[in-house]
Amino acid sequence: MIVLCVLFLLSIAVANYLLHRDVLYPAFLQASLWLFATVVFLLAQRMFIPVAGSIFMLFVTGVVLFSMGAFVASYDHRPILIQNRLRKGSIPSRGAVFVLDGTVLVGLVLYMNKAVQLASSGPSTNPYINLRYALSVTWEETGGDLGVLSYFIPCTYVWAAITVLNRRGFAEPRSSRLLVALTVIVGLTYGVLSSGRGVVLPLIIIVLVIPAILRVTTPGQTARTLGILVLGLFVLVGLALGKGGTFGSTIQDNWVGMRHLSARSFMTKGTILKWASTPFERSLLFSGRLGSEPPTFHSYNLTSIYRCR
After folding, report:
1. If DSSP codes are grouped into helix, strand and coil, which group holds residue 138?
2. Tens-digit pLDDT profile for residues 17-57
3. Running DSSP on this structure, what letter comes out for residue 85?
4. Cα end-to-end span (Å), the chain
5. Do residues 304 and 297 lie in contact, with contact meaning Cβ atoms separated by under 8 Å?
6. Contact assessment for residue 177 and residue 167, using Cβ atoms and an 8 Å cutoff
7. What is the torsion angle, in degrees rounded to the nearest 10, for the CA atoms of residue 274, residue 279, residue 283 and residue 289?
8. Phi/psi at 294 (5° precision)
9. What is the 3-state secondary structure (H, E, C) of 211-249?
10. Collapsing DSSP states into helix, strand and coil, what is residue 25?
């Protein structure tokens, strides 16, 4: 039912965009938000309370009714698709931005110092794997995502957003390309030291979506760039953690390893998770989370160990 709901919401979002070809069209925004929320639930539904199938049909019904209302309200209307400009005073003062910049940079120094301590704590010889282990397995001891230092990450998002708005939101750019690149590099550093892709992805979305909303770039260009960056991020983090390949391997070997890793991740983290109902099965799943391989008799038969009774 949830997959059918995603397909319906995707169809409605595409239809609403084709109606006016405007990313600020309310019906398109509303359908896109519900589509995003439903896709997140689909990919990580084991982390949420189970939801009945009728609830998803309620989502679709609400999106359809909202789209109908937006269609009636915008009937025979053709939006003027010009670049949006920010009004004077809509961006914080230079003093406030300077304080924000200093806060982010000071936080980065503290963040890097803490990350180095965790990376040298073991148990592996790979510092990045040690950091990942400390933040995902022994997170209760480390205070989660580097403890209170993780509060500097939202400040980085705000700094990046302000810089991009200053660069793209006015007729005369108020931020240089070098400053935009600096904010992105700082944000990526925070993300890399958090050893997760979840921190980097919001930064990428902020940097790419703001120009699309300002109509500086087209949605197609934004989607293509976002897809390439997300795919590259998946590969780079996988190589750094030794999942699916290493930096010292050939491109062909890494391609085969990443392909097998993607297939295995899809199967073991998706459908097969629903079959783990016994303590033995759940212990295998938990050991898999730590990186150990399950004792399979056939490398291609991934479901046998999860369905044994």
Report:
1. coil
2. 888 877 778 888 899 888 888 888 887 777 777 878 788 88
3. -
4. 28
5. yes
6. yes
7. 30
8. -70, 150
9. HHHCCCCCHHHHHHHHHHHHHHHHHHHHHHHCCCCCCCC
10. coil
In angstroms, rounded to a whole number, what is the distance separating the alpha carbons of residues 78 and 241? 50
Number of continuous H segments (helices) and E segments (strands) in the chain: 13, 0
pLDDT in tens, 279-294: 444 444 544 544 444 4
Residue 44 has phi, psi (to 5 degrees) of -130, 40
Alpha carbons within 13 A on the beta-carbon side of 80: 3
Instruction: Identify which of 91, 115, 123, 43 has the alpha carbon closest to the alpha carbon of residue 210.
Output: 91
30: amino acid identity, one letter: Q
Query: Model-level pTM?
Result: 0.58
Cis bond before residue 295 (omega within 30° of 0)? no
Looking at residue 277, what DSSP letter applies? -
pLDDT tens digits for range 142-158 = 555 577 888 888 899 99
> Which DSSP category does 90 fall into?
S
Question: What secondary structure, in 3-state letters, does 156-213 show?
Answer: HHHHHHHHHHHHHCCCCCCCCHHHHHHHHHHHHHHHHHCCCHHHHHHHHHHHHHHHHH
Q: Which residues make Cβ contacts (< 8 Å) with residue 246, sequence separation at least 6? A: 239, 254
Among the listed residues 221, 253, 218, 173, the one whose alpha carbon sits nearest the alpha carbon of residue 81: 218
Residue with tokens 């397995």: 137
Copy the structure tokens of residue 287. 């050991």
Token pair 């980065």 is at which residue?
Answer: 108
Q: Of 236, 193, 99, give the one whose Cα is nearest residue 244.
A: 236
Query: What distances in angstroms separate CA 76 from CA 17, 195, 203, one per listed residue?
Result: 15, 50, 37
Question: Which single residue is written with the structure tokens 């793209």?
Answer: 168
Least confident of 49-58, 109-118, 160-169: 49-58
